[in-house]
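Class prep. Write one:
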Amino acid sequence: SCLTILLISNLGLFVMNIGLLLLVVELLGKAYLGFFAVAGFYVLIAWLLHLFRNSWLKEPLSSMIIKKMLN
């Protein structure tokens, strides 16, 4: 059941990414520019997540886990 939800979610994200790519290609007029723009966007997101991983991910998740363990 969890695996099915995960697979359907990944498929949905994949289709949304293709839609985003096609939109950017249409706006920019060249396919390679669309691929570079979308890839650059994801590199930027990955860089920001890496840069702020402690304040955005590690601290909130560890606090949530500790609260669940103590309750």
Q: What stands out?
A: The mean pLDDT is 92. The two ends are 27 Å apart (CA to CA).
